[in-house]
Write a structure and sequence with these properties.
Elements: H1 2-34, H2 41-64, H3 72-80, H4 84-112, H5 126-150, H6 155-173, H7 183-192, H8 199-224, H9 227-238, H10 240-263
Length: 264
Amino acid sequence: MAGEGRRLVVADFAISLMWVSSNELIKILVQGALGNGANQLEGDIAKWALSLLNMFVIAYISTLANGATYNPLTVLATAISGDFSNFLFTVGARIPAQVVGSVYGARLILLTFPGIERGPHLNVDIAKGALTEGLLAFAIVIITLGLAREITDDFFMKTWISSLSKLTLHILGSDLTGGCMNPASVMGWAFANKHHITKEHLIVYWLAPVEATLVAVWLFGILFGTKKDEQSDVKKATSPQQKSKNSDQPKSKKSDQQKSKKSD
């Protein structure tokens, strides 16, 4: 069990590094191919198509790595609805690994291409930025929880809906906050730019998304129930007492019918 946990932490680190660096590589490739046209509609379509392909590749690697991922919000949402030991493991090991992986991913891409744009920018005040990132995080957590509940075996459909949702939400928030929905990724760029302890970064890109995640998990649990509720229902249905009750019901019906025949 401990070995599996270590492998999962290492995989979180590696996938987070890949996520940060690959997203910037997409921008560099499109910029190099289209030049000034990279900022036009043609460039945007190319970046969106490559981003969708990148999300599919990362999602496939994640399945091979037993659920390793790059976003603290999704693992936090799962950990909140799980047991306490899993919550401690997520907060104490997996999320830090994702942050460190993102930091090294940002440093790697900056060392390779020192003249590139350095991560997301907050283009509004702190209140609007926190509200934007909070709403985006709330939406993506609700979508993630819903997909995990309703679609379990269809990798393509699950990844397609998730990737398209992330891309759409990113576009909606890109002009305001960067549409990040990923505190670890933002932390990587903020650390590289030495802006990781500023009030704007902590409130907009950490506090607001984490609070939105907590609200999303709480609301989803109220509307649809949690895994614990489903497990308790299964245990009740398969308990010996419940089975005996179910087996006694037909017998009682037969005895009632026999009594009614005798009285007739």
